[in-house]
Amino acid sequence: GEYYLTDTIKLAKHDGLFSSYIIADEDEVMGVNSRSDLAMAEKIFQKQKRQEFMTAGVTLIDPETVYFSYDTEIENDVIIEPNVVFLEGVKISKNVRINAFSYLEKCIVEEGVQIGPFARIRPETTLKSKCKIGNFCEIKKSTVGEGTKISHLSYIGNAVVGNNTNIGAGSITCNYDGYNKFSTTIGNNCFVGSNTIMIAPVELGDNCLTAAGSIITKNVEEDDLVVARSEQINLKGKAKIYREKRNLFK
Predict the structure, then answer these.
(1) C-alpha to C-alpha distance for 175 and 157, rounded to whole angstroms
(2) Is 14 a catalytic residue?
(3) What is the DSSP letter of 22?
(4) CA–CA gap between residue 24 and residue 89 (Å, rounded)
(5) Average pLDDT for residues 180-192, to the nearest whole number?
């Protein structure tokens, strides 16, 4: 029951109407009538988009492995490594480097930022100038301040992180209690030790430090050092006894 565009010529002639034509590039007027056709159209679009960005001063290390959205905005002197995906709503300022296997969606990346490899930047995220998001990090609905480093294995969600702060490996914001989302605020010049868990809603003031492995459930004031973990207990010789008991059941 479909009508093809070419049928309009016949219909117009039948009704005594005037028809004309122009010469167009085949890629611009190709038909999409199957998933295979759609994939071909996408391939053509991606090729055009890659060329557009490289002509404008963007470096693509391996162009055929980078995928753009129709609305991707990238300024000049940006370096993009292989296997990077841009979904809708991404804006990249100049002098940014996006390392391999990174994934960006509905985010703003300011000048001089480094991302990845293997980083996921989710919607409603703003990365301020010269901050660093490293490997296996996920940032969601957050603002990361100027010069701040979240270098590896961390999740920051529903958060505001100040300037020149360091987030240690394995640190996360617990922003969801199963029913509602809550916010975390981390100040300027903070040092968040590795494997710190920040249970929102919570605030960490400027210049504070958290000990590695801490679970933060209360606000931390400016210049405070917080240690929130169980004391280590060494039981002399108990490992040997434990192994001997386990061997009894073999």
Answers:
(1) 6
(2) no
(3) -
(4) 30
(5) 97
Mean pLDDT over each residue of the chain, to the nearest integer: 95
CA pair distance 153, 2, nearest whole angstrom:
52
User: Cβ(72)–Cβ(58) under 8 Å?
Assistant: no
Give, for 226, the enclosing helix (H) or strand (E): strand 225-226
Q: What share of the chain is helix, strand, coil (3-state, %, to 5)?
A: 20, 30, 55
Q: How far apart are CA 35 and CA 22, in angstroms?
A: 28
Give the phi and the psi of residue 240 in degrees, each rounded to 5. -65, -45
Which residue has tokens 């989302």? 181
Q: How far is CA 209 from CA 80, 152, 163, 231, in A?
A: 34, 18, 14, 18
Q: Which pLDDT value is given to residue 242?
A: 87
CA 190 to chain centre: 22
Kindly tell me if the per-residue pLDDT of 250 is higher than 70.
no
- Neighbouring residues of 163: CB distance < 8 A, sequence distance ≥ 6: 128, 145, 146, 147, 148, 188, 189
Q: Encoding tokens for residue 183? A: 């916010």
Could you give the dihedral angle defined by the CA atoms of residues 6, 11, 17 and 19, in that order, rounded to the nearest 10 degrees? 10
User: CA angle, 111 as apex, 106 and 112 as ends, to 5°?
Assistant: 115
- Does the model's pTM come out above 0.85? yes
**Going edge to edge, which strands form the sheet with 159-161?**
73-74, 91-92, 107-109, 125-127, 143-144, 159-161, 184-186, 202-204
Residue of 152, 169, 187, 202 marked catalytic: 152
> pLDDT class for 243, splitting at 50, 70, 90?
confident
- Residue linked to tokens 């480094």: 114
Query: Do 125 and 107 contact (CB within 8 A), yes or no?
Result: yes
